[in-house]
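Fig. S4 source data, part A: sequence.
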Amino acid sequence: MLVNEADVKVRYQETDQMGVVYHANYLVWFEIGRTQLIEQLGFSYASMESAGVVSPVVDIQAKYKKPVRYGQTAKVKTWIDYYDGFRVVYGYEVYTEDGTLAVTGHSTHVCVKKETFKPISIKKHFPDWHEAYMNAMGE
């Protein structure tokens, strides 16, 4: 299984009054990891969008275990947890600077026509992506 690792320097504006990363910012970090994973596979959201397709989030979950604080560098690990040719579930783990697991999560995505939001098959419309996703999962 292919796992992307992205380092994210915690910025002051990402923290709350308690000095820890505000919970919604982890979703942004998930996006950073997901985008880097897709780029690592040789693709980009921009190329998908230029073909008239977007990939909305249809479900997202996060479990918070330990705080990440201002000034630290977090590590975001991202992988493809599930893929069936239509739906993609990405898995995430965020670690503190000392390697402690801080957050786990999953996001589920589908691809849709940009103009109509009608779902499409990734396998059919983007066979290169399909093959890369299957390879990234080790299948």
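Fig. S4 source data, part B ends here. Residues 4-136 form a domain with the Thiol Ester Dehydrase; Chain A fold (CATH 3.10.129.10).
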